[in-house]
Amino acid sequence: MTEVVSSANPGLSQPLLAKRTSKRWMISALITTAIVALPVFSVLYLALFPDENIWPHLMETTLPRYLTTTIKLMIGVGILTLIIGLSTAWAVTMCEFPGRKFFEWALLLPFAVPAYVIAYVYTSLLDYAGPVQKALREWFGWQNAADYWFPEIRSLEGAVLMIGLVLYPYVYLLGRAAFMEQSPSLFAVSRSLGHSAISTFFRVVLPIARPAIAVGLSLVLMETLNDFGTVDFFAVQTLTLGLFDTWMNLGNLGGAAQIATTMLMFVVILVTLERYSRRRQQQFAARDNRDPIHRFTMSFPRQMICLAVCAVPLVFGFIIPGATLGYYAWEYFDESWNPNFIRNTFNSLFLSGTAALTTLLIGVTLAYSRRLHNTRGMQVLMRLSSLGYAMPGAVLAVGVIIPLAGFDNWFDGLMRDYFGFSTGLLLSGTAFALVFAYTVRFLAVSAGSVESALQKITPSMDMASRSLGHTPGKTLVKVHLPMLRGTLVTAALVVFVDCMKELPATLILRPFNYETLATYVYQFASDEQLYHSALPSLIIVLAGIIPIILMSRSISNSRTMT
């Protein structure tokens, strides 16, 4: 009975351990959190005390348009991802149809395609000079655009479609996991009362899965707010585009910080609404939530409907973009494979690998400190350290450049006064700024994964290690890390792929004449040279497939299905 109670509480609060636990872990966590949270407070400070206050000018001119467009984009993407994510999750979880096992993992593949890449691909295919409209003009004898109507891909609606096609896996992933955790007896009772599969979904399944779906939708909306490549290419004037314009074109960092603060308010509102929507909900695991779930048997027409529901987002979200990129990469391989491509690939691998290792080290430090000192203060530190994940990349870039540039200027002035030489840029404008930004943004991924895995390790393991004379550090190295090997590898892969795809922060913080694969693709696409951006885009997509397969397997193995 004692061990059961201890396992429910991951903190080691026993008197013996409390006396012997080193305070160095708490101090390390405090210092790390202060550094990681610095960009957030820097943005808020500069927004409140800018060198030149252009907030009234922004309010009178561009800000209302930025706000309106951003809200429309988020609503459109949210509705689209909910429709695709929930319908596909329900189909592969509860319905038996041809190809179901394939779609279980394949529906996650669009997650590997950055939104700006899919936007470039479909613009190349659907634009006036693209192959689709050319074929239509040849088939029907049309001479110019005035002879027919064709939807404009470079529009707000086009941006909604592009972003939604690659972000629905958030809702699909969490929705499917929630459906698989539910009790089979609920379905049986609902069906015995005469409810159809659709009625059971809306009356029973959806209300229970709402917390997980709300989390997935919140992630979708935050990623939508973070998008820059798609909205820039489609000329959709969102807050992110306004931040870039205010900083890069107007040269006003304070105004950019004020727009960044507005974006942070969006994030706070999203998180608050998500938590408020489930404030009165309490859910507990049912005793039979590990029993096999019997899928619905359906007629052939309904099986084809499920097949179409799953095939459409996969075809348009991954197969068509992937095939197009593969074709262009093959056709223009000799031109694309050049020293610039090799150098930029190395830059991406180096930055992403370094950031993945850094986030793992910091994540383990924070999560293990929380395990040793399970206090309210440590809970606050964990939440503060995760703020970066909720920050759009452009906002994070503003928060990073402020303290780093301030330090560089202070240190350079110090060296000039006392030693008569200039040190230049030591932190800002270097690869360090990019690694720091990546670490702050994706630390929540590694820290959250490690913390969740540590909670599953019984405290008796720590007590046994401490009774043998091991310090907390040796206990971590010899006991916990070997047990966390799978979690650490998965977390590192996810962070690595996220860093490979990150565009807004990289565009702002990268050193002069320093490109990654993401910025390399962006530069070519901005010059309407998709053919030359195909190979680097394909590398980014391929890098994201491995963690997607791992995530799908972990979910599939969590529940027996029949």
TrEMBL record:
PROSITE patterns in alphabetical order: ABC_TM1
Alphabetically ordered keywords of this record: Cell membrane, Membrane, Transmembrane, Transmembrane helix, Transport
CDD domains per record: TM_PBP2
Keyword Hydrolase: no
Keyword Transmembrane helix: yes
Annotated compartments: Cell membrane
Matches recorded under Pfam families: BPD_transp_1
Chain ranges of the ABC transmembrane type-1 domain: 67-274, 345-551
Transmembrane segments annotated in the record for this chain: 25-49, 69-90, 102-122, 159-179, 200-222, 253-273, 305-329, 349-368, 380-406, 418-440, 488-509, 529-551
Topology within the bilayer: Multi-pass membrane protein
Family statement: Belongs to the binding-protein-dependent transport system permease family.
Record-given protein name: ABC transporter permease
